[in-house]
Amino acid sequence: MFAHRARRASAWGVVFGALLLAQEVSTERPARSGPPERLRDTGLYKDWGTRTIAPGNLPFTPQYPLWSDGAAKSRWLHIPAGRFITASNPDVWQFPVGTRLWKEFRFARRAETRFMERTRAGWQFATYVWNEDESEAVLAPAEGVRWNVPIADGIRHAVPSQADCRACHEAGPVRVLGVTALQLSSDRDPNAPHAEIPAPGAVDLQTLVARRLVRGLPRALADTPPRIAAPTPTARAAIGYLHANCGSCHSDAGELKSLAFALDYTLDGPPEQAAAVLQTAVGRLSHFKVPAAEDVVERVCAGKPDKSVVVARMSSRNPLLQMPPLGSRIVDEEAVQLIRRWIAEDVAPAPGLTVVR
C-alpha cells in the first residue's frame, strides 16, 4: 500500500512539475495575439534585404482603384495552401482563415503598407509605417499617424487609425474591397479613373478560378468576365468609380442602409436591372444640406452637375463636407470631371421617378 501511495505521489509530482514548467514557458514566451511589430514578419517578403516577395503572395490590380491622393500602389493576396475563396455570392466572397493581404502606398517613397489577415476571430487590420530611408516599416499606433510623408504643398499623407480601417472595411458585407468578381474581371474598363496596368504576374478572376483558388462562382460569370452594364463608356466608368470609392459604405446591406442610397454595383441581379445609383440617387432629395447652397438638394440632379450633392461633396475637402470622409486630403479632380460629365450628358430622370424625402 505504501509503495502504491509512493508511486501515486511520484506521478502527481511529475504532473505538477510539468504544469509549473508550462507556466514558466508561458510567462517567458507569451503567445502573440495581435499583428507583428514589423512588416518584415508578416510573411510578405522572402528576402527583406532585396524586398523579394515571397512565393504564394499573388499580385493583383483592381480595375477601379480607390483614390488615395495619387499614391502609387502595389497589392498582394495570399490564400493558405489547400484553401480557397467561396464565391457563390459573387458580390460578397468568403475568405478562408489564414488569408492575408497587403497594400503598399508610395508617394516620393514608400509611405505605408496596410495589412489584413483573416483569423478565427475575424479580420485583423494593421498598418506599417516606413522610415525615411525605407530600411524598416513598423506597426503604426492605434490612432494612426496624422502627418506622414508630404504629398502636396502644405499637405501630408495621413496613415489611418484602427478605427478608420474598420470604418471602411466593416461598414458593409464586403470586407476585402479590391478582391471581388467585378474588380478582378479581365474585361477591364479602359476609362476607369487612374486605371493601372496590372503588375507582372498579376492574377485576375479567370486565373483564380482556373487555379481553384476561387470556387462556387456562378457559371455565367466564370464563362463571361463580368462588367458594369451601362449605356455609354462614360456611364460605365462613373458607376465603377462610385462603386469602388463610395459603395463600401453606401449600400443596401450595410450600416447606412436606412439612407436608401446605394452606390455599390452588384452582379447577382438580372442583367437588365438598373444600377443602384440610378435608382437611389437620381432625383432623390439628400439628407445632407450643402452649406451656403440651398438650391443643391438632390443627390444627383439629372443633367445638372452643379445642382448635385454628390458633386459638391466630392469637390470639397472640408472635413464637414467631403466625401469620402476618410483616406483623402486632395480632391480627385479627374473623378470629379468624370462624374460631372456623366450627370450632364448621360443621366436622365428615370421614368415615373418622383422626388422623395
Please describe what this structure looks like.
By secondary structure, the protein is an alpha+beta fold. The protein folds into two domains: 39-223, no CATH class; 233-345, no CATH class. It has eight helices and twelve strands. It has a six-stranded antiparallel β-sheet, with helices on one face. A two-stranded antiparallel sheet has the order 1-2. Helix 5 (233-246) crosses helix 8 (333-345). Mean pLDDT is 89; it is low at 1-31 and 352-357.
Question: What is the topology?
Answer:
Layout: H1 2-28, E1 45-47, E2 52-53, E3 58-59, E4 72-78, E5 85-86, E6 100-106, E7 110-119, E8 122-130, E9 137-139, E10 150-152, E11 155-156, H2 162-169, H3 205-210, E12 214-215, H4 219-223, H5 233-246, H6 276-280, H7 309-314, H8 333-345
Parallel strand pairs: 5-12
Antiparallel strand pairs: 1-2, 3-4, 4-6, 6-7, 7-8, 8-9, 10-11
Helix pairs in contact: 5-8
| Biggest pleated sheet | 6 strands, antiparallel
Shape: globular
Strand content: 5-15%
Q: What is the string of SSEs from the N terminus onward? A: HEEEEEEEEEEEHHEHHHHH
Query: What is the number of E strands?
Result: 12
Task: Estimate nothing, just give the exact number of structural domains.
Answer: 2
Measured distance between first and last alpha carbons = 88 Å
Strand order of the largest sheet: 3-4-6-7-8-9
